Amino acid sequence: MTETPQQRYEISSEPSRLDAARIHNWLSTDAYWALGRTRERQDLAIAGSLNFGAYDLASGEQVGYARVVTDHATFGWVCDVYVDRAARGHGLGASMVTAARDHLAGAGVRTIVLATDDAHGVYEKVGFKPLDSPEKWMSLKLG
To answer: Phi, psi at residue 52, to the nearest 5°?
Structure first.
């Protein structure tokens, strides 16, 4: 019998539990969207966001991270979702995004977005779908 993520991991939004050094290492060395991100930049991102950590129940070790940029009222952007390579394959990424979705829904947030190059199937399981009107969205790259 395979353990579910809920049986093996705990997901928490408690900031004091985050292992900022581990998060920085994961993202700056192994996440295509954040390669080379400085520790200072990552710490600023953590400080300005709603963060979720996933923790192994047996060891207490942090094994996953997800960040949400949000106003806690109308909008949220899920980003920096990362699961340690040793903990992948157990649905942990989807569980963290579900926790973020539920947290935001409880605050009355009506729109949540994310972008991914390669994990569409993971996020579809949580209820995400392609934008209804992508032509309405715009972006501005500053660097």
So the answer is: -125, 130
Tell me the C-alpha to C-alpha distance, in Å, between residue 69 and each of 19, 50, 56. 19, 6, 25
Q: Residues 74, 104: contact at Cβ < 8 Å?
A: no
pLDDT digits (tens, 9 = 90+) for 57-68: 999 999 999 999
- Residue 62 CA, chain-centre distance (Å), reads 13
CA distance 85 to 72: 31
3-state SS assignment for residue 52: strand
Would you state the structure tokens that stand for residue 142, as one six-digit string? Answer: 């500053």
DSSP-assigned letter for residue 132: S
**pLDDT score at 7:** 84
Contact 81, 93 (CB under 8 A): yes
Dig out the tokens for 117 from the structure.
């190059």
Query: What b-and-e string marks burial along 99-135, b requiring 16 or more CB atoms within 10 Å of the CB?
Result: bbbebbeeeebeebebeeeeeeebbeebebeeeeeee
Tell me which amino acid residue 129 is.
K
